[in-house]
Prior knowledge:
The structure holds 2 protein chains of 2 kinds.
Chain A: H1 3-18, H2 32-35, E1 51-57, E2 64-80, E3 87-88, E4 101-108, H3 116-125, E5 140-142, H4 158-167, E6 185-186, E7 196-197, E8 199-206, E9 212-219, E10 224-227, E11 232-235, H5 247-253, E12 269-274, H6 280-290, H7 292-297, E13 298-299, E14 309-314, H8 324-345
Parallel strand pairs in A: 4-5, 12-14
Antiparallel strand pairs in A: 1-2, 2-4, 2-14, 3-5, 6-7, 8-9, 9-12, 10-11, 10-13
Chain B: H1 2-20, E1 36-42, E2 49-65, E3 72-73, E4 87-93, H2 101-112, E5 117-119, E6 122-124, E7 129-131, H3 147-156, E8 174-175, E9 185-186, E10 189-195, E11 201-207, E12 213-216, E13 221-224, H4 236-241, E14 257-262, H5 268-285, E15 286-287, E16 297-302, H6 312-333
Parallel strand pairs in B: 4-7, 14-16
Antiparallel strand pairs in B: 1-2, 2-4, 2-16, 3-7, 5-6, 8-9, 10-11, 11-14, 12-13, 12-15
Helix pairs in contact in B: 2-3, 5-6
Amino acid sequence: MSAASALRLLWVGVALTNAPASPGAAPTPVRRADTAPAVARNDTITAVPGIRVGHHTLTERPTGCTVVVADGGATAGVAQSGAAPGTRETDRLVPSNTDTRVNAIVLAGGSAFGLDAAVGATRWLDGRGAGEGRVPIVPAAVLIDLWVGGKPHVRPSADCGYRAASNATSGPAAQGTVGAGAGATVGKLLGREHAMKGGIGSASIVLASGLRVGAIVAVNALGDVIDPHSGALVAGARAADGSLADARRLLRSGAATVLSSLPAENTTIAVVATNATLSATDANRIARMADAGYARTIVPVHTIADGDTVFALATGRWHGASDVSAIGALAADAVAAAVVRAVREATTAGGVPAARDLPQ
Amino acid sequence: MKRTALSIAGVASLSIVLTAQPSPRATFGLTAVDGIRVGHHTLAERPTGCTVILVDGDAVGGVSQRGGAPGTRETDLLNPLNMVDKVNAVVLSGGSAFGLDAASGAVRWLEEHNIGWPAGPAKVPIVPAAILFDLGVGGNAKVRPTADCGYKAAEAASAGAVTEGTVGAGAGATVGKLGGAARSTKSGLGTASISLPNGLVVAAIVAVNAVGDIIDPANGKVVAGVRNPDGTFADARKILRAGGTMQRPRSGENTTIGLVATNAKLSKALATRMALMADDGYARAISPSHTSGDGDTIFSLATGRWDGNADITTIGALAAEAMADAVVRAATQATGAAGIPAARDLKK
């Protein structure tokens, strides 16, 4: 018996002893919460071994950047579905191009200027992450937050990326108004003055088999954020009385039909990571399936004014058997959970109110 | 002058087509879009068939192809970089790749009616198509939609209310195959539309044959999916989160194919964006969606019969809403077939 299969048996044993006795019922979730003692449980993307996250948030204006470091590199993919993207190194991730292990992904505010943050992360990784004499591969995506906080010339620079990379830890990722999500907002269907605060959210799913899937997202959508478990609004465009207007109702009633004047001030960007061993093709499928997490939580999404992008990382540290579709489905779930958390964890900034600060 | 003569000829051929099918236009569903007609043909030997979406004249078209196991034709033509920007019909069919034959029948019907892209000596009908995999449903896998099916569906097309459920391309469609085909639920074909006070109409039609379960996005509840022995639904989301045995999706039994249409005027690139945004309707109403065993594809058509002003974000967002509605209706309107019960046959 190999060590891997022995470990798998052990996990199965844990799963069985913890499963509640309900014969005939559907398989019952066995999550880390059921098996671990009540010490601080890391339910963010850093629950995936080898993945570290660092933020750097600027003080002059709510904006910043977030670096997701893959220690030892990871196979990567991308799904770029929004119409107004700002990215780098995405061509590198096309499966027909040279198979490369990615060292880090950078998410940043500051619109296209924020791509500079990836330069700083690359500088930090040089000689560290990629190994001596190897070029660090650092794909990146940006979101547009220049209007938040009044000083559009304040943007994440290479320095931001360098600091975020040097801050990266394997502890639970900080969420809310931080890093790439510091200047993020949602619910802009009625204009920015009706917007609410977005931010950074992260979530992970840990299966008894040892498979782990995590997500981190900076939510800066034109649309509202919905909890897919109930269909209830979590944050979004506010009506004149401060209540949530509900983008779905606005759109279906024809109350919001002239959006062409909307400036491009949106975009939701994310990284999903798994410890599974995947090909570049499979990593791209994971990214694409994870994109469904956006669709389930953000309405509308993938608009002409959103540059929605999802990166996928597969560290290959777990060699168990799992299907790409199962991993992709969990990645979509993790993204959805992370999006909802991003707005629940956000705090008011730049005069834009957060969900937690609205009168109930 | 030449152009005027041509357009008069176009109107003349159009009027012949219209007088042949004098049904009043539907107020709900895909045919609520001015310029769109829908016809089904369902085979008698096995639950399978095809559905033809006919354009009166032509419409600007687009496509979003995001599932991992597609079966399509003429999707490269729909790339905004490529020249032809008009579509005469779209065919959705059962029968796996064999079912692409149905498009040939629709092409023949269109040529007989002098409809197509002017290409020198002939008008070439532009007919993109996508198929779903239903060969394992109802026994005889040799029974598949042929060109004859596409021809008959085109001949049957009308502007009246679209028949939903176990019909046309949805006749052999099933959902909830995470626990294998034996625990699946019968699905079918659904349609829905949203009409705004300003005259904008956005509508969807879909044949739902997914690996995943069907979810009502309004409340997060399972509408149809993997069945438990007691007739309740197991919930694919719970199965996956528990690390339950997900049977590797088999490319012989899945794929959701659909189409969204609007009466707005759109460029080819914006029609493509509309299709891509409509894909969010799949993500909201199907879980999991876009798996390696699903060939999920959505076409879009913009008939341009409405002169009003609407933004692509509104049109795309409504296309996603209409598509999610249509997916749910495909599950609720389906009737049991080939021993596979539909949601309406199961106790709540």
